[in-house]
Amino acid sequence: MKNTVIHKSNTRGYANHGWLEARHTFSFAGYYDPNRVQFGVLRVLNDDIVAGGMGFGTHPHDNMEIITIPLEGDLAHKDSMNNAETIKFGDVQVMSAGTGIQHSEFNPNHDRRTNLLQIWVFPKYRNVEPRYQQITLNVPDREGKFQQILSPNADDEGVWIHQDAWFHMGNFKAGEQANYTFKKEGNGLYVFVIKGGLTVDGQALELRDGMGIWTDDNSLATVDFQMTEDTELLLMEVPMFQ
């Protein structure tokens, strides 16, 4: 039997720091809801808008898999592993913080904002050697289907992390249908609506809504999607237990 939880867009945590407008699906910083701390090993799903020329100063992380997906604009990144890169729309970046890293992120464009998703996943192993990976995806490959953007396997499509997780993105037209089958027993699926609207197993979701799905018996469930508008989706399949 499938279990579900729905997080409507307007129930997310919200903070406006002037240069940063942040929305938190799960408890983060000054937003805390004991019922919304994580979904399985998915700990953070932040939807951030960074003003032109502004950003996050150097700060530390450890023992977390950190995934950044720009939705609009660019993000300049520097870290203690001597990486200095600009992440653009169509790119996916991952950092395995492991034993510890420091990094900074800022919007290099003074004339336009940057909108990004930053996602934190608890790793399968603690204190791994820190690593950095960034790739550019072929965005048209997700038209009418789900494109894999992350997996546990370095040889698979997309970036890889130290966790039995698979992420996909898809762009669909109104009226199109799709489905997704879990890749590993014991995993759940978190659906995030980047644009548009749809039904997921008959449940209606709108812009920036999220929905978690898991099963009582850890079976490889299949989830059905019916688009009611032109829709862009991010799917995050993650273990439900560390």
TrEMBL record:
<feature type="binding site">
    <location>
        <position position="59"/>
    </location>
    <ligand>
        <name>Fe cation</name>
    </ligand>
</feature>
<feature type="domain" description="Quercetin 2,3-dioxygenase C-terminal cupin">
    <location>
        <begin position="149"/>
        <end position="238"/>
    </location>
</feature>
<dbReference type="GO" id="GO:0046872">
    <property type="term" value="F:metal ion binding"/>
</dbReference>
<keyword id="KW-0408">Iron</keyword>
<dbReference type="InterPro" id="IPR003829">
    <property type="entry name" value="Pirin_N_dom"/>
</dbReference>
<feature type="binding site">
    <location>
        <position position="105"/>
    </location>
    <ligand>
        <name>Fe cation</name>
    </ligand>
</feature>
<feature type="binding site">
    <location>
        <position position="61"/>
    </location>
    <ligand>
        <name>Fe cation</name>
    </ligand>
</feature>
<dbReference type="InterPro" id="IPR014710">
    <property type="entry name" value="RmlC-like_jellyroll"/>
</dbReference>
<feature type="domain" description="Pirin N-terminal">
    <location>
        <begin position="12"/>
        <end position="121"/>
    </location>
</feature>
<comment type="similarity">
    <text>Belongs to the pirin family.</text>
</comment>
<feature type="binding site">
    <location>
        <position position="103"/>
    </location>
    <ligand>
        <name>Fe cation</name>
    </ligand>
</feature>
<keyword id="KW-0479">Metal-binding</keyword>
<protein>
    <recommendedName>
        <fullName>Pirin N-terminal domain-containing protein</fullName>
    </recommendedName>
</protein>
<dbReference type="Pfam" id="PF02678">
    <property type="entry name" value="Pirin"/>
</dbReference>
<dbReference type="Pfam" id="PF17954">
    <property type="entry name" value="Pirin_C_2"/>
</dbReference>
<dbReference type="InterPro" id="IPR012093">
    <property type="entry name" value="Pirin"/>
</dbReference>
<dbReference type="InterPro" id="IPR011051">
    <property type="entry name" value="RmlC_Cupin_sf"/>
</dbReference>
<dbReference type="InterPro" id="IPR041602">
    <property type="entry name" value="Quercetinase_C"/>
</dbReference>
